[in-house]
Design goal:
Elements (H helix, E strand, L loop, with lengths): L1 H21 L6 H21 L5 H22 L7 H20 L3
Helix pairs in contact: 1-2, 1-3, 3-4
Length: 106
């Protein structure tokens, strides 16, 4: 279950990062509330996953899901640039996540 909690925590990180962007510096109430709720849930699930998973593995996977997810949402929803260098960077993050998972004994 720790891996399930960790993946959900990573996905919630994407949600709170997107809602933080939409909050316009915490000046809009609804996106600000969404940011705070999703951030709390994400940290909570990360914490639960760390009861079983090693710190380095859990934190790396969590931030990686957030980073690649935020990149994908930025491109798909916000119209951010897709350049070969940005795609390569995201691919390298994914490769690192796969390596972390494969190297974990859990």
């Amino acid at each position: 279950m720790a891996w399930v909690y960790l993946i959900i925590a990573g996905l919630l990180e994407v949600v709170w990062a997107f809602s933080m962007k939409k909050s316009e510096g915490f000046t809009l109430l609804t996106p600000t509330i969404v940011t705070i709720v999703m951030m709390t849930a994400s940290f909570g699930l990360l914490s639960v996953s760390m009861k079983t998973l090693p710190l380095g593995t859990a934190y790396t996977i969590w931030t990686g899901i957030g980073a690649v997810g935020a990149f994908a949402v930025g491109v798909a929803v916000l119209g951010e640039a897709v350049t070969p260098m940005r795609v390569l960077a995201a691919a390298l993050i994914v490769a690192g996540l796969v390596m972390m998972k494969l190297s974990s004994s859990h």
